[in-house]
Design a protein that fits this description.
Blueprint: E1 3-11, E2 17-24, E3 29-33, H1 40-55, H2 63-72, H3 80-101, H4 105-109, E4 117-125, H5 128-140, E5 145-150, E6 178-181, H6 183-201, E7 206-210, H7 217-227, E8 234-236, H8 246-251, E9 258-260, H9 271-275, E10 281-282, H10 291-304, E11 308-309, H11 319-331, E12 338-339, H12 345-350, E13 356-358, E14 361-363, H13 376-379, E15 391-394, E16 399-400
Parallel strand pairs: 4-5, 4-12, 5-7, 6-15, 7-8, 8-9, 9-10, 10-11
Antiparallel strand pairs: 1-2, 2-3, 4-14, 13-14, 15-16
Length: 402
């Protein structure tokens, strides 16, 4: 089955998405997500100018060979742009292969390991009471796991807190806006949030929290230790992970489970963290970690060390990635949880999909392929809009991690 054509579709139904569509001589098509929030056009160019010309005429069934051709053959390996482009090709080819077999994608991976995929939603508020009320709303919607974020007194804005509670999108301007951060104020405030949540809701629901890379290792150890009485499902992105060894210091000071990896692109970003058991959940995802083919390798390595998956699933991943992730999730033996931020009605209309949510779980559906398509005519009505993620500064003006 020869690849006869491929094209990139950039659309902005409430936020920007980049989609690769591959066509074959047997009339089958497949799509893959190539969205890299704030750097979308870099991936679109990489695909159009460098990858697509190499795909024409190749056998669409040779997924492994094409993956290695694009990774090893480019010489310039790794990085978010390269790996997002490879992921789009890989996802589209798995979509085609599953359609050719007449099976949902998870069947080609080995079939179901579970009946449903537990997901977590995002509850946030300007203060502790507003966040508490939002957690209650997510519980009413059936969620069994909820990520809780709150505004910090004395800070004008805080990551994860927005006026739009359901469709949070941090990319907010053509050029990056600047936020102000105080680690001291944050460390004093966050334990009060989880004390309130456990006091109101008890321990029947999983609670998660995202630090968003903002602490030093010893600060993260302090936070993890202060949160231990509230038994978090995980503490996410406690410190930047370029230095994987930094997580050893956090481990020495807390038993709060640690999750990291949404910005990881390859197995090498997670190798030391996994084999030294410095984390409990690996959050690499289909679109930014080289597609389903490579994410399977990361998960297999993690399984050797009892590290479970917890794939990133914010709204900066399109429904195409969510569909592919759910097929991966329902198969992968060492599954932990899947992040699920709901897309807007406009996005769902552009990307009709088979996946569904009920009682805290999602299922990918049973249509052939990964179950997500793109309405190209509708997509064309939403042109690209430049939009950047913010940057972060300390109160003295020092640029900090966002």
């Amino acid at each position: 089955m020869k690849i006869t054509g491929a094209r990139v579709i950039v659309t902005c139904p409430d936020r920007n998405f980049v989609t690769l569509k591959i066509e074959t001589d047997e009339g089958l098509t497949g799509i893959g997500d190539a969205t890299l929030n704030g750097r979308e056009l870099a991936v679109a160019s990489y695909l159009t100018d460098h990858v697509i010309p190499c795909l024409i005429g190749r056998d669409a069934h040779r997924i492994e060979d094409i993956w290695n051709y694009l990774y090893r053959g480019a010489y310039w390996r790794r990085g978010p742009v390269t790996m997002s482009a490879i992921a789009a090709v890989d996802t589209a080819l798995w979509d085609i292969k599953a359609k050719a077999a007449g099976l949902p994608l998870y069947q080609l991976l080995g079939g179901r390991s579970r009946d449903g995929v537990m997901v977590y939603g995002h509850a946030n508020g300007r203060d502790i009471e507003e966040t508490t009320d939002e957690v209650a709303r997510y519980i009413e919607m059936g969620y069994r796991a909820i990520r809780a974020q709150t505004g910090v007194p004395g800070l004008a804005s805080t990551y994860g807190v927005s006026s739009d509670k359901m469709y949070y999108e941090p990319a907010d301007a053509a050029l990056p806006t600047e936020n102000v951060w105080s680690t001291e104020k944050y460390l004093d405030h966050v334990p009060k949030l989880f004390d309130r949540l456990r006091d109101r809701f008890g321990f029947d629901h999983h609670l998660l929290h995202d630090v968003h890379h903002r602490l030093t290792p010893i600060e993260a150890g302090r936070l993890g230790k202060s949160l231990e009485p509230y038994r978090l499902f995980w503490m996410e992105d406690a410190t930047p992970a370029e230095n994987q060894e930094a997580f050893r210091l956090i481990r020495q000071h807390t038993v709060t489970p640690l999750a990291v990896g949404e910005v990881f692109n390859t197995i090498w970003d997670a190798k030391d963290l996994i084999q030294n058991q410095l984390i409990d959940y690996i959050r690499a995802t289909v679109v930014h970690a080289g597609g389903i083919s490579h994410l399977r390798r990361i998960a297999d390595l993690a399984a050797l060390y009892q590290v479970r998956t917890g794939c990133h699933g914010a709204t900066d991943l399109s429904p195409v990635c969510m569909g592919a992730a759910l097929h991966f999730d329902i198969w992968v033996p060492n599954f932990g949880v899947q992040e699920y931020m709901r897309h807007t009605e406009a996005t769902d209309a552009v990307f009709p999909h088979a996946y569904s949510f009920a009682s805290g779980y999602m299922t990918p559906g049973d249509v052939p392929g990964h179950g997500v398509e793109i309405d190209e005519k509708l997509a064309a009505k939403y042109p690209y809009k430049p939009c950047s993620l913010p940057v972060n500064r300390l109160e003295d003006g020092t640029l900090w991690h966002w």
